[in-house]
Amino acid sequence: MKSLKTKIAVGVLATGIVASMGTAFAGVDIAGQFNSWYQAKFNQATGKVVADTTKDYASKLNSYNNEYNTLKNGTVNEVVVSQQEESKNSMLKLNQQKNEYISQVNAAADGLQANTAPKFEQFVNDVNGVVNGVKDQAKAYGENDLKKSVDSQTQKSVTQTGKDVAAYQKSAVDNLTAKIQERQAQLDQLIKDKAATSDSEIRAHIEAKIAELRAELTAYAKQQADLAKAAVKAEADTKTAAALKALEAAATIK
pTM surpassing 0.85? Predict the structure, then answer.
């Protein structure tokens, strides 16, 4: 019973400490402010990288556009037919897989949903039973001894808590301010470093892709031209042979 008495007194003391400390830090959403500051810095840095590299990329693609259009016109019809067939096949496969996943999710969710209410009901009943038993035991002693024991200590504890909080408050504020400034400086430098690295990587990637695009389409154009020239030559050879044969027949004097 002496242990319960001590716990009750400590609970009252903790309530006084929390009430006093609330006046020093109430209403300050420091995590939200820090997150907003970081997001603004991040958005500013990445926005500039995207704007700069997009402008360069568009300029390079535009300079290659005429060369590309010459290659494109001869292959569009064949590509359209292939694309339509592939799109249809992909859609059918995706719908089939999606429906299978939906069936699995529904089956699992239905089973879990059916068991959730009974589990929570049993959990609440068990906890409430323990709470009721503890409450009944504590009440028998607490009502007789609480007022006399707590009144003598409450005023002393509240006064001492005020002194302690006042002494610790300045140190806590200074430490918090220093830590915020330290982390801001670290994140600011990290953002600058990452922005510079990202800019270089994106520009290098753009150059590589432009070179890759030029080489691939030029090779493809040559392949298509060779095929076309071969077909034209074969047709010319066939027609020429037939014409020569007809000419030879006409040259025979009967």
Answer: no
- The answer to whether 38 touches 185, Cβ cutoff 8 Å, is no
Question: CB of 75 within 8 A of CB of 224?
Answer: yes
Residue 35 CA to residue 29 CA, distance in Å, equals 10
C-alpha–C-alpha distance, residues 127 and 119, integer Å: 12
Give the start-end residues of each E strand in the chain: none
Contact 187, 38 (CB under 8 A): yes
Q: How far is CA 90 from CA 78, 87, 101, 115, 123, in A?
A: 18, 5, 16, 38, 48
Domain of 43 in residue numbering reads as 2-23+31-250
Q: Domain count for the chain, please give it.
A: 1
- Tell the burial category of 45 from Cβ atoms under 10 Å away from its Cβ (0-12, 13-18, 19+): buried
Average pLDDT over residues 126-149: 70
Residue 32 tokens, joined? 């939200």
Q: What is the predicted pLDDT for the residue at 142?
A: 67
The C-alpha angle with vertex 109 and arms to 106 and 111, in degrees rounded to 5, equals 110
- Determine contact, residues 141/8, Cβ cutoff 8 Å: no
Q: How far apart are CA 168 and CA 190, in angstroms?
A: 33
Residue type, 234: A
